[in-house]
Design brief:
CATH superfamily of chain A: Ribokinase
Distance between the termini of chain A: 38 Å
Number of strands of chain A: 14
Helix content of chain A: 25-40%
Order of helices and strands of chain A: EEEHEHEEEHEHHEHEHHEEEHHHE
Strand order of the largest sheet of chain A: 5-4-1-8-9-10-11-12-13
CATH topology of chain A: UDP-N-acetylmuramoyl-L-alanine:D-glutamate ligase
Radius of gyration of chain A: 19 Å
Shape of chain A: globular
Oligomer: homohexamer
Number of helices of chain A: 11
Structural class of chain A: alpha/beta
CATH class of chain A: Alpha Beta
Number of domains of chain A: 1
Chain lengths: 326, 326, 326, 326, 326, 326
């Protein structure tokens, strides 16, 4: 039985070798990347029975995505689009280095998933699952994708599947006002909200100011719970770690230090680690530490995916990692 | 002053390493590819003063294309599209090997060039040039691209620039009927037609049957001249070489044998070699042999582009090539 | 439900880049390779619901194998061995080129699978499956592996699962006499025998001589059926194609020509293609052509695995493949 | 019309992959490198109409250099040397890492440029240009190169082209005394001097001691202006940034922090950024910040060349760079 | 004549590219690695006449090891094992990055060296040499290897060859009690002991506590000399440098800072540098600084081997290294 | 004791990846290449005790050459030139493919070996050796190299070392007349001449015409023996195999067919195989077949060097090679 099901777009990520630039490169590394499949891979690798729902073109390129995700143990449940009329979303990633930022060029318009309809999807996995996760990227892709997102979350709710949502605001996809409206339309069907503090401030207009109780992050979390009746809110704060409010209690989790080889997918690794631990019976505090450890490990691995093992995550949590094991 | 100007789309060509498949590959080689820029590069490398007109997104990806073409000496005259709303066309190329065919997956819908307008282009280079080349791929891309193709050819004609056209039929872009209508609308403004015998048969409905004079290819050429008043018609016949009818005379050119590493762009190399020799004062016969030699050399080089030199082409024509030169 | 289940060892195949030699190379390409997983991958890719049973060390290396096979859609059912006491079998492959042969260096002694016991395996998949395949390599690995092979085949027979066996003689593993005895001990539990003509002659002592009816291959097949009551015998003859005798009828299948990039796994691809077509309702003649086509396509792909699609196999069978599809 | 023209040698730079050593490596990355073409590429990429004058062997190796520079938009004006008697200068670069220094092995003796004569060069570009740049490396290469340098600078002066010179002392080419004499012979024809503080001290004997007004760098600059009547002197001080004295005013520019992937070409990037901004109408202060930003970005890119864009430089100057842009 | 002879196992080290993981990688870099050959290579590169004794399978894989070591000037004196019955030890190395440790997976059971006998080895080189080095890894491999180690050290002692031993404890090979017993059985035949402080504490039960004279490391060294009559004891302390006690005097050596690309083999580089300097007439203090400098340089180079030169080591010792030398 | 000593230049061979061109490539494969070291490596690998004499710059580049040759078991006896004033010869190799020839660009002027003097060389190895080999390339490099060649051959003769010489005419180094005079000056000190039939014709003016006895190759051989009193003459005829005349007898050897991956060094492999077999006691007929087999195997390996084993050569000679050995 599926424990975790995620729904969203996965793209082919194309990036030049270190030190090369997109404007001149002759080779590109190809990898699968997308918030919801990133969460699925982290979850599956950490032991959760995980399915991923999406739509892809019925071509070697769509198969390429499935091949990579399936290798990590994800049960890929894909609606196949007509390869003549739909395409695979791609994104070009050019890693930076101070003072040059990391550049992301999306080429995802008209991807197969923009035509997705609820009827095409394996909704029975949603009904059966313990957790159903999607991010705020999906409703930004098209009206059809937004509608399907709404229907899936409602379907999950109707079947007592706990829904998890991360707004994951992308300025290249929509403006903050449109995004906020879309998020808030979904919130009634969301149980667990994971939100970056900067998104809470910039998009949801919640910076935790105006009160003196607790940290700003705690005030943001409590405010969201007050307004939308979430079961749990996790606020991620980059280098400052994460904070959760769950059933009235506050949990604080610092980050684990990491030598960052590739930062893309860190937040998704956090969610995957968090949910895997919850599924394994862990409390919110344990789940936060698993999320933070998975995120730290992810940063040492190339690509969007958290190619990690439960033993490695446990070692970080137990502060037993590092050194040369021989 | 420009001798040769070409107009058309150039894509980023993405191909896996030898023996790998698109469905599983982790690396892709990136190269510029497009019929008209292929012709431009061959022409420029063989000594012609060459410009290429196109439209690209104003992004590192568009710059990537310009960077590669410019390196070969092509004067790139690009209209830059808004990177938020236009994209770079790409195509995935998976080289085959008997009995597996070479697979091409186009991902070119909504490329920047589909929005091209004549006013954006450096039409003064067309007016000044000796030859203006485009292929039948361009009008297949969008109504705007088709309209611009018509206007450019008419502009060339009005300025005594010799126009060259290769239908280059692509079944993945349109059906044969639509293509034929589009080609025939352009033919009144075309002086030199280069056409694959299989396109003449399958698209133009001319298989050279119904007469006994000359070879089928010759009959195709003479029929086209009779109907559309071309100055020159070159019929390419794959392994059987090319045949031209020019001012009533027939010229026959066998292929030069080649160890084929990459067949893509062979036909474009032929056109580039043919035109470069014509510009250099060569007769149709000489130009055919330069076209054939450039095409044969192209097959030994990876990528769409004919990365060759005049000395190499001359050596093939003079049958002086081969061996180890030390 | 599983249609095809295979059981056997999968190794890490390590091979130097083209033109390099094992004695000097600095890089090795790593791929999964093993007769039974090769069959499983071909079967799964061609649409069969396929499981693979094996034993691997519980380490990143064992996981590496599972990761690759799972990517192709194989349901991997692995018994995990203690990483302290079991290891992953590896083999070094140095591709040759006339007059230099292809060199295979096995480093598979004491691999985890040599300790496999029937109780560790997902025998329920065998009982449920339509076909159960293993090769003569497995019983050569250790007494435990031989015993488990016997028990699995008997278990399959007892549950009306059709058993398929290919002796796949390996001179580096055992001598012909020992091998023959082991094969013949298994034959009573085998329904479908696929055997290379050279193995029939060299190991089973059957060269088809001594009679004048039919070809030697046919006589070999009929003789084996007479002696061991196989349902079907397929004799593979390298470049001369395959021949099957099934319910008294003879089917002859020539090879499809192929540009060989990597010959390893050709025979396994044949079996995978054959069984996939049988499962899909094809007759023995159709299955033979699917086997031959899968084998030919395999030769164009690097690695042991037949990374092919049903459409590609169908195109070869229909002689509709080749050329550039654009 | 050309805004910036540079003159000097460009070599093929050959470097092993990270972690490999020249003494054992089996692959070398090949790139174009040379102070004056580095400046030209930075200038061209930042929008200046830029030409580069040099001499190369008329061979695929010489063409290789032109191909790379032209790709960045530089107008390459090359005198072609006889490939039988001239060669392409090369240099081997082995990147270090504390405590191992970066090793440079020059193999540039008898390069084509050592035979360069003024008559071979496109001197009309010098006469037309706004700025003409060369470095103190060029006169170190041969007597002919020194003579041509003198003549070009004089020609520039005679045509009101502003001349820019960077001594760029190379201990592997000549001793400090010879270098100083050569520099000082050129100084009367130099308008803008860019000089590393360590070269000013070690070669020109100017350490800014013996006075108390301003910083040592300022004293060096003022002293050079007093003695040689330069219009502008820029003193670069490594990690401590640059200082300019121009028309009596002092401008101070700190460095922008950078994660250094490849330090080679940093100084040339500075000059290219400085001149591009001056050409674009910027004051000395703005030009210094553009120089510093271009230099910092260069350090994040592999190779000698500053593969950067005006937007990127502006973002660094505006302190708006960094992060992940999605 | 041989100055330094070492004896021990060398494995094929297989490691994925940076950022890839063993569990998913498709390429492995292959290098020779083993404590004793690491010491031999460092010694040979720094000018010592060096031989290395070992046993390898008589196959391209065994030859692969010899090829690499010989390239560095080591005189390889190998007993060749039957390739049918012996194998090459391998180890998989996955470099980490905080918080992920470096993972080492040994696959060395039943390597050829486990069958080594003294009679197979070139013992005359031991008798002639100035120094004979082996590590505590060798006796851990098999009873035969342990016996041969004992015999070789005794043979060296009998011939006035100074013996050098580093326990180099490997938890994956044996437990601390067994190791300690084996080490102490060898100590009577050891002249120079190099021991990591952590091994002294964890395995030899000596943490330098219980006294107040000198540092703990000094007390460890003096205690070992008191108990086993070593001529010299060098205690290495990771980032805190090394300490030697020799003829009653104490020598302290800090580490040289290094940007670490690959830490494997650092300790062996230290021993190689130390012995090379001793052989060149250096005192213990000089030898320690050469050891530390060789170790620091090693960290900047990929692989187990210290690919360094005497000039580079001298420059580090003289603090004259760093920067760009041009 | 040395059995075979060779003397000559070894260069760094730089070649682009397959399908890339020197005019555009960004990576170069680096390998050691030179006729005399090619012979040395083939000889050493086939069991001969082999030394190689040369002169190289005392730099990492010179060391690079030694490293590679030493790995194959060659005893490198190098005179080290001042790195400030001598350089490493290089050559750029661009593999072709019909109709494009293989291009070689030498960059060997002023290489260290051009300054070589007999006194710098380990002449004692020449005096002790059974065979001393050099090619006609060496005297073409400089007057000093020519003088040293003469002295070495005379020294060999004086010490009863059999001298072997292959003119190996290089049109890029000198004209045929100068070459012939130089060869003929050396011939009195040559015992065994190996000469390509095309060099005999084009340079030595011997095409075997003017007589009817035997084949032209035999007449060439007999004529050379008559004129210069060679002990043995071997005439190589490309695809037509080799012919030897030795003590009046004629031996004819066809080529072994080969799939050619890299033809460079084929002739040197032939000489190495021939001499290794002679040293091993083989007659001229056996030696010819070993030469031919070594040459055929060489063609399947990338680089100049014959990376082969005695077993492989024997298998080709015994026509027992090919297939997959498993």
């Amino acid at each position: 039985m599926t424990e975790l099901v995620t729904f969203g777009e996965t793209m082919l990520r194309l990036s030049p070798p270190e030190g090369d630039r997109l404007a001149t490169t002759r080779t590109l590394e190809a990898r699968a990347g997308g918030a919801e499949s990133n969460v699925a891979v982290a979850g599956a690798r950490l032991g959760a029975d995980t399915a991923w729902l999406s739509k892809l073109p019925d071509s070697p390129l769509g198969e390429r995505i499935v091949h990579e995700l399936r290798g990590h143990g994800v049960d890929t449940r894909v609606a196949w689009g007509d390869p003549e009329t739909t395409r695979l979303g791609t994104y070009y990633l050019e890693p930076g280095g101070e003072p040059r930022g990391t550049d992301v060029i999306y080429d995802r318009a008209d991807a197969a998933i923009t035509t997705v309809a609820t009827e095409e999807l394996a909704t029975e996995t949603v009904a059966d699952a313990t957790y159903c996760y999607t991010s705020g990227i999906t409703p930004a892709l098209s009206e059809e994708a937004a509608e399907t997102t709404r229907e899936l979350l409602a379907h999950a709710q109707a079947n007592d599947t706990t829904t998890v949502f991360d707004p994951n605001y992308r300025a290249k996809l929509w403006d903050t006002e449109t995004a906020r409206a879309a998020y808030e339309e979904l919130f009634p069907d969301v149980d667990v909200l994971v939100v970056a503090q900067r998104d809470a401030a910039a998009v949801l207009g919640r910076d935790g100011a105006g009160s003196t109780a607790g940290t700003p992050a705690e005030r943001v979390a409590r405010g969201l719970i007050a307004d939308f009746d979430f079961e749990t809110v996790v606020v991620t704060r980059g280098d400052e770690g994460a904070l959760a409010v769950h059933e009235g209690d506050v949990y604080d989790q610092p980050v684990y230090e990491a030598e960052t080889l590739d930062p893309i997918g860190t937040g998704d690794a956090f969610v995957g680690g968090f949910l895997a631990r919850r599924l394994d019976g862990g409390g919110v505090d344990e789940a936060l530490s698993w999320g933070a450890a998975t995120a730290a490990l992810k940063r040492t691995v190339a690509g969007d995916l958290a190619v990690v093992s439960p033993d490695e995550v446990a070692a970080v949590v137990d502060e037993a990692s590092g050194g040369i094991d021989r």
